[in-house]
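Reviewers of the previous submission asked for a worked example of the structure-prediction workflow described in the proposal, so we include one complete record here. The input consisted solely of the amino acid sequence. No template or homolog information was supplied to the procedure at any stage.
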Amino acid sequence: MNSGDTAWILIASSLVMLMTPALGFFYGGLVNRKNVLSTIMHSFFTLALISVMWVLWGYSLAFGPDKGGIIGGLDFVGLRNIAPDDILAGYEIPVMAFVGFQMMFAVITPALITGAFAERKRFKAFVIFSLAWSTLVYAPVAHWVWGGGWLFEFGALDFAGGTVIHVTSGIAAIVAARMLGPRVGFGSKHADPHDLTMTVLGAGLLWFGWFGFNAGSALAANGLAAHAFVVTNTAAAMGAMTWMTVSWIRHGRPSVLGAAVGAVAGLVGITPAAGFVSASSAIIIGFGAGLLCFFAVDLLKKVAKTDDALDVFAVHGVGGMWGALATGLFAEEAIGGTNGLFFGNAEQLWIQTVAVVSVAAFAAVMTMIILKAISLVTALRVPEDEEALGLDSSQHGELAYQL
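From that input alone, the workflow returned the following structure tokens.
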């Protein structure tokens, strides 16, 4: 056991944990003030719910002994058969540190989806959905890519969660938005963010936590972690500048919100590539994420007429797919993994494409099945009068602001 590596992974886990309440602030500032608490609660309660689920069965399904390349076995249910001094194979950290690190990844993924159905989903339906989705979608995909499953064997590269976290959550978001239907007044009522200060604070904390997200995925305090740290910051910065500049050209003013969302888009884009690409490639990936995600927001609302309330698919779905494919373009064997298309290995781009398509299809189908099953038991969204009143009051009996 290496005490330095262990300390770094525990710190990185804490940084990733911070990202979930940070997401609550990021999302909370974007909604109407009558829905602030309900939106923050989605993130905060997910932290509690999925932490327990991960200990009971989530970790075992994701990282237990492989069963046909599809799912992990039940050897680690309740974290049994894991002693405090057990060392993670191939590394010098305790297995329990890895459990905690991966727990925080599992926590934030369903929390990301909540932005799609903000301001209209019943809390009861949200709880059931988060638990079922994490079990039936997140855990299997995590096993496919990281737990020795079929995509791992196929050679898919995903350093910190482009497919596992962002593609799954982004696809689930668009499916959920379509199945729940738009908010009352969507398309005719202009809904500005109620507190951009809160949103920018959330974005800053997400950026900060993302260093644990990506650099921590090296699973050691080494040169690869330092490299991932630098390219993560580079892509975030480029994403922020790109989104703000495009918005400035289109609307005539440099948008504060655009800079914040662009940074998140850049962070999403670099996530699968952080341990495989150079800093100069990170600039291109951040630029692509800022540009593609910006136009995806417009396309979704104006062309697809879909009320993905907080643009989860446009940022995480599109950004995650771009990042996963860009890994197949810019990966360098000298940094980690294998070469991509631009370094003489066209096959890696094909492998990344298969990973994106298969994960997206699985997440879409399973999300539809889960939501349909829940709708047979309880209503997915609140009644129209409760939506008009606001979910803070109708679902929780509390108000964010006493005005």
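The chain has one domain: 3-391. We consider this example representative of the routine output the project will generate in years two and three.
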